[in-house]
Amino acid sequence: MRDTLSLSVQQMLREIEQRYFDPLTLDVLATRLKKDARHLGRRFRLELGISVHDYLVQVRLDHAAAAIRRGIKIEAVSLLVGYRSKKNFFSAFKRRFGTTPGVYAATNRKTSRRKRPRDG
Q: In whole angstroms, what is the distance from residue 8 CA to residue 22 CA?
């Protein structure tokens, strides 16, 4: 699908993936790409069917879920993925995954369970 996207949208996707943890906005992306923000926003929505902000939130939360599964503490995860407010992180996470980060962690953590030798 990325092959059919305009160069500007491809650049925005790359910037978001590389800097999702930074305070990114459409204006920041436009400045980095030396393009008009309104034009980029319209183009992004037209080509992907989602706003830049909503896409950024999805990327952040997908990275957050992966970090939680690896066992990183939730408070650290929220900061690592660019949230400065724990409350905003929890709200966004619950909207995206239908559960709180704590419940998600309890049910999705990758554990390194070793096989026990059989008694015998």
A: 20
* Full 3-state SS string of the chain: CHHHCCHHHHHHHHHHHHHCCCCCCHHHHHHHHCCCHHHHHHHHHHHHCCCHHHHHHHHHHHHHHHHHHCCCCHHHHHHHCCCCCHHHHHHHHHHHHCCCHHHHHHHHCCCCCCCCCCCC
Inter-residue contact 69 to 112 (CB < 8 Å): no
How far is Cα 31 from Cα 62, in angstroms, rounded to an integer?
26
- Give the whole-angstrom CA distance, residue 84 versus residue 60: 12
The pLDDT tens digits along the chain (120 residues) read 556 999 999 999 999 999 999 999 999 999 999 999 999 999 999 999 999 999 999 999 999 999 999 999 999 999 999 999 999 999 999 999 999 999 999 999 765 444 445 554
What distance in Å separates the CA atoms of residue 53 and residue 55, rounded to the nearest whole number?
Answer: 5
